[in-house]
Structures are given as C-alpha cells and as structure tokens.
C-alpha cells in the first residue's frame, strides 16, 4: 500500500472514532505524496473511522486541484454554475481505480494549499470559540505564547469561496511567518490542522483540543432519572402525528437520553439558546437546523411550526428536545444517531459560547447557501 495512503488511513481512524471531534460523517483528511504529484483525500459521504485500504478515499492529481482555485474564470459565473463546475473538476482530478460514485470531499481544493498532512474536524470545544462573538479575541489570548500563531479564517461559504480564502490567507501567512499555518480556526465551521508529518498533525489536534477545553464546562447534572415510558410513548405519538400532518411522511422516531440531553431538557433557557439559529453547516446538513424546543406537546402547534419552515423553502427539522423528557429524532436509526451527536455537541457549544460573550450563528444568506448547495 502507498505510504501516503497508509498515513491517511491512520490519522483518519484515530480522529474519526470520537464524536466530540467529528459528528457522523463530518470532517475530512488528506495526505500528499512526497513528490507532490498526488493527494489522497477522504471521500465525501463516508466516515473517517471506517476508512480502509479499499474504501473511503480518492487519489487526486494535485496540480489539477490547485488549478481550480487559480482559474480566474471561475470567479465570473453565477453561483450555481460555478459550484457545479468546481464539483465536476474535483471529480475529474481523481486518478485511481476506485469503484462507485465516491466523490472527493468538496473541501479537497482547500487541502491542496496547506502542508502535507491535513486534518479537518468539528470539535465541540473548538466550536465554542468559532461560534462565539468574542471567539477570535479569546483564541488570540489562548495561543498568545505560540511562535507561529493560529490563523483565524472569517466565515466563507463551503466549496470554492472557502478554498479561495484559505489559499489567499495562507499565502499572506507564509510571507509574514515564513511557513504555512499549522492551526486554522474557521469561523462558524471548525478546525484545520496542517503539518509535515502525521504524528505532528495528531499532536497538534490534541494540543488544540486540550487548550480550548480547559475552561469550558457543562451545567451540573443532578441525579438522572429514567424517563417515564408512558410519557415517552405519548411524546412519540404527538411528534410523529405532527410531522405527518406537516409533511405527509410517516417516519420512524427515536428517543435519546443521556447526561447532556437530560441537563438541557431541564434548563429554563434551553429554548432561548436554540433560537439563535444553526451554528454551522453540519447542523443544517444533518438536522435541517437546530433542535426544536418543545415545552408542551401540542400536536397542531408543532405541525403549524413545521409547515411554516417548509413554506419558507426549508426542510423540516428532525430533532425535537422535549422539556423534562429528552430528545426525539425523525429518521433511520443510523441517521438519528448522527443527529443525536450533532445536537449534544450543539447544546454544549451554545451554552459555553453564550458565556463567552454571545452565540454567533449562521446568517440567513449563509444558511440559504448550505440549504441549496450542501457542504
């Protein structure tokens, strides 16, 4: 097996098994070959933890990938035409024997302008800072002792716009510091780690996670009682019927209850925290927005709320946090488990971001881009 591919599999599995680093199939990785001809990158729609020598990656021609961002013509077409063109060119840059319709990550062209090993994650602790109104200032203080400071990347739409911004900011960083940035905090998005060797990249991941998580906390959990079975059954019926009335879809509904869900299901201000809007692309892609806070199980009222969102051209939310009870998620057990991870991470981020100075959520235009084009 190619050495670079072996390194990619190693770092992907190491970080992909922790839901507080990545939720579901989110996050991506890449490793460039020593001759700079190729880049092995995680395939879109696959899980980092499941990557193997036979699946979960694509090999890309590095010159072709970099040529996408350098092509000035791509800055001219309208949004839909440009993003479609970029996706097509990324796929065309793949040179391997992979079978099936596995596309390279939409962020592959971003990886091309960083160091040999790149790890992109959505850590919960980092999310607190990139979704806080004072996040940039807090990060600068946390990493003030570093010889090569982290690069803060203001929000850009995933795909071409974000890759272009990284390429430009990375070039300026290199001119100023004499090397590429190793730690990148992406506003309302996540973390990028860039290093020359896999071991170095992994060490940087843990360094950032530990430093960001030092002063973060979760509300104190009292003794967790097992929710009443009858109450769960009644809630399921109300939510399922409301979802059917709004969408015409008779979907499976799953119940989740753990320490974090129990704490926030009992907090008075949880509804206010969730009303801030979606924090990042993942919360839209996996959950169709933040979990819906339900203080009362009024079936018709729930249905009306869902219909209003659908009327705005949005997909109906699939997560419902019921006061004093727990989390209910529409969908298959596999998709619902991912939604549970995203919701738990989001609740922790919202609570701490509010404590740091306020929650910075996606704007309406940023949300619209994700809803229309994905990430």
Number of strand elements: 11
Residue ranges: pLDDT <50 for 5 or more in a row? none
- The helix/strand series, from N terminus to C terminus, equals HEEEHHHEHHEHEEHHEHHHEHEEHH
For the CA atoms, what is the radius of gyration? 21 Å
Percent strand equals 5-15%
- The strand order across the widest sheet is 3-2-1-4-7-6-5
CATH fold-level topology of the largest domain: L-fuculose-1-phosphate Aldolase
**Number of H/I helices:** 15
Report the biggest beta sheet as strand number plus sense, adding barrel if it closes.
7 strands, mixed
**Total tally of structural domains:** 2
- Secondary structure class reads alpha+beta
- What value does the average pLDDT take? 93
- Tell me the helix content: 40-55%
CATH class of the largest domain: Alpha Beta
What is the CATH superfamily classification of the largest domain? Class II aldolase/adducin N-terminal domain
| CATH architect. name of the largest domain | 3-Layer(aba) Sandwich
How far apart the termini lie comes to 30 Å
Principal-axis shape: globular
Q: What's the quick description here?
A:
This protein is an alpha+beta fold and 375 residues long. The chain has helices at residues 3-16, 62-70, 79-92, 108-111, 124-130, 135-142, 160-177, 198-213, 229-247, 259-266, 270-274, 281-287, 299-311, 333-355, 364-373; strands at 28-32, 38-42, 57-61, 117-121, 151-153, 183-186, 190-195, 253-256, 292-294, 319-322, 326-330. A seven-stranded mixed β-sheet has the order 3-2-1-4-7-6-5, sandwiched between helices. A four-stranded mixed β-sheet has the order 8-11-10-9, sandwiched between helices.
């Amino acid at each position: 097996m190619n050495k670079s591919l072996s390194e990619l599999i190693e770092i992907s599995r190491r970080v992909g098994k922790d839901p507080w680093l990545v939720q579901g199939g989110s996050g991506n990785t890449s490793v460039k070959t020593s001759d700079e001809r190729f880049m092995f990158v995680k395939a879109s729609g696959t899980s980092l933890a499941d990557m193997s020598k036979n699946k979960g990656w694509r090999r890309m021609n590095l010159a072709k990938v970099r040529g996408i961002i350098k092509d000035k013509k791509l800055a001219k077409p309208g949004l839909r035409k440009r993003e479609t063109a970029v996706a097509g060119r990324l796929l065309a840059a793949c040179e391997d024997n992979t079978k099936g319709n596995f596309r390279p990550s939409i962020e592959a062209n971003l990886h091309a302008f960083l160091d040999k090993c790149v790890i992109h994650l959505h850590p919960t602790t980092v999310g607190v800072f990139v979704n806080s109104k004072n996040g940039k200032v807090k990060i600068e203080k946390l990493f003030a002792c570093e010889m090569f400071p982290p690069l803060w990347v203001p929000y850009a739409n995933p795909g071409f716009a974000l890759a272009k911004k990284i390429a430009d900011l990375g070039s300026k960083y290199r001119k100023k510091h004499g090397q590429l940035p190793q730690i990148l905090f992406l506003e309302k998005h996540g973390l990028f780690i860039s290093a020359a060797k896999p071991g170095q990249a992994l060490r940087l991941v843990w360094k950032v996670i530990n430093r960001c998580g030092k002063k973060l906390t979760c509300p104190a959990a009292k003794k967790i009682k097992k929710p009443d079975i009858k109450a769960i059954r009644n809630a399921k019926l109300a939510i399922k019927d409301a979802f059917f009335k709004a969408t015409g879809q008779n979907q499976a509904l799953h119940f989740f209850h753990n320490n974090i869900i129990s704490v926030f299901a009992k907090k008075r201000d949880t509804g206010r925290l969730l009303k801030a809007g979606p924090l990042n692309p993942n919360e839209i892609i996996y959950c169709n927005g933040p979990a819906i806070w339900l203080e009362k199980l009024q079936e018709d009222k729930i249905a009306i709320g869902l219909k209003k969102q659908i009327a705005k051209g949005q997909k109906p939310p699939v997560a419902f946090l019921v006061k004093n009870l727990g989390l209910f998620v529409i969908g298959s057990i596999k998709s619902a488990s991912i939604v549970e991870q995203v919701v738990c991470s989001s609740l922790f981020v919202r609570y701490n971001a509010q404590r740091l100075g306020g929650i910075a959520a996606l704007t309406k235009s940023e949300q619209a881009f994700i809803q229309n084009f994905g990430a």
